[in-house]
Amino acid sequence: MEAKPVDLEERTALFAEAVRGFVRRLPRTLANIEDVKQLVRASGSVPANCIEANEALGNKDRVMRFRISRKEAKECQLWLRLVNVGDNLETDTERKRLRQEALELKLIFTSIIKKLE
Questions:
Q1: Best CA proximity match to 42, nearest among 80, 93, 83
Q2: Cβ distance 92 to 25 under 8 Å?
Q3: Which residues of 71-91 are buried (b: 16+ CB within 10 A; e: fewer)?
Q4: CA dist 64 to 7, 56, 70, 115, 117, Å?
Q5: Domain spans of the chain?
Q6: Regarding the domain delimited by 8-116, which CATH topology (the fold level of the hierarchy) does it fall under?
Q7: If DSSP states are collapsed to H, E and C, what string results for the chain?
Q8: What is the C-alpha to C-alpha distance for residues 3 and 46, in angstroms, rounded to an integer?
Q9: Residue-wise pLDDT tens digits, 5-61
């Protein structure tokens, strides 16, 4: 198992990239098309807001950006749950891994927020 990056900006960017690779392998159903749009947006928002938090003008702004990252990571968990992977066991395993990463990111953001408040 690969070690996870210590740098949170890098870890969240790798998550967003992994989501993009994952969605390319999904069946093209009407529901998936809509759910994938939401998943891609939410996964990209996680690192974007993490970067914004690290460049924040003050503590309130920093906390708000981390809260948004946490919210988007939680949303990714939902969209990953809803997408249809078909009968592909490999794709389902990847979905579970991505859901776990989204959960871990959410917990990291929760910890950061608690320390900043």
A1: 80
A2: no
A3: bbbbbbbebbeebebeeeeeb
A4: 20, 9, 10, 13, 11
A5: 8-116
A6: de novo design (two linked rop proteins) (1.20.1440)
A7: CCCCCCCHHHHHHHHHHHHHHHHCCCCCCHHHHHHHHHHHHHHHHHHHHHHHHHCCCCHHHHHHHHHHHHHHHHHHHHHHHHCCCCCCHHHHHHHHHHHHHHHHHHHHHHHHHHHHC
A8: 20
A9: 679 999 999 999 999 999 999 999 999 999 999 999 999 999 999 999 999 889 999
pTM of the model: 0.92
Rounded to the nearest 10 degrees, how much is the dihedral formed by the CA atoms of 104, 73, 32, 18? -60
C-alpha–C-alpha distance, residues 69 and 82, integer Å: 20
Q: How many CB atoms lie within 10 A of CB 47?
A: 22
Q: Which amino acid is at 11?
A: R
